[in-house]
Structure prediction request, 295 residues.
Amino acid sequence: MTQPTTIRRVPGPQPRPAELLRSALALAATGVPVLPLQAGKMPFGNCHQCAHNACGGRPNMKTPGPCHCSGVCHAWAAATIDPTVIASPPWAAAWRRAVCIGYHPGGAGLTVVDLDDAAAIGWARETLPATRTVETTRGEHWIYRGTMTSHNAVRPGVDIKSTMSYARYLGPGTRTMAALPDAVRALAVKEPSPARPVPYAVPMPAGAGNGDCPHRTPAYLARGIAMAEQRITAASSAVHATVYRTFLAVLSRHGRCGCLTDTHIARLFTAAQAKGETLRHCTDAWTNARTTLGL
Prediction:
């Protein structure tokens, strides 16, 4: 295993407001939504009009409300590629107070794996596919094409910034950008404990039970469930999609006649959870498959 080395970044001189604005406009022209950030990489606070959530939003815009404020007080949700907005009041005043440029990775179709220290970087080099890399003051940003839900502390020293999040722009970086791998998506999925597997616990209706049963013998259904379990177990990538497609296939063949029981569903859920799916993901996939088929 490669031993992590101590990383020491020497910050450069703080850019002038005019330089920040020019860089922000150039970045926005490439399709990356930008916003000004204050000292400490913090977004600007709510304006008077939006104070105390009067606009319908929430602090830090974790869930933005129906606000039409033209200011910069909505963090990632305010990020824009519109050059008129970026260079005009009230944004112009914010750039004069800003110390760096932020951007919304999800809005640009990107995901940033934020590696905070040398140990995290060493882990990434051994685990994740190489991609565009940008040095930060403490570590590195690894940038991939594709979006996902943002999560903090998915492992020691590792955050994921994509949708509903912002990251500091520190330059174009080096190396070719790769597609977002399943290994990064898997970081956001809490794995079941190997000591005590998560059991199937939520009864889900299998089907209406009012159709004609086309199955000649119980062995036909048993074979179908066994094949579905094997398909999930054999998945080496795109586990979410595999689970959903498998649930969809089972329900399309066995969901209308009432043959499926809680025992059958439990077997499918157990197979999915053994691959790292949570109970909630299993339940959502089953519900979505039923909805797709009109069950």
Observations:
- Residues 44 and 73 are 5 Å apart (CA to CA).
- The longest helix spans residues 218-233.
- DSSP finds ten helices and nine strands in the chain.
- The two ends are 51 Å apart (CA to CA).
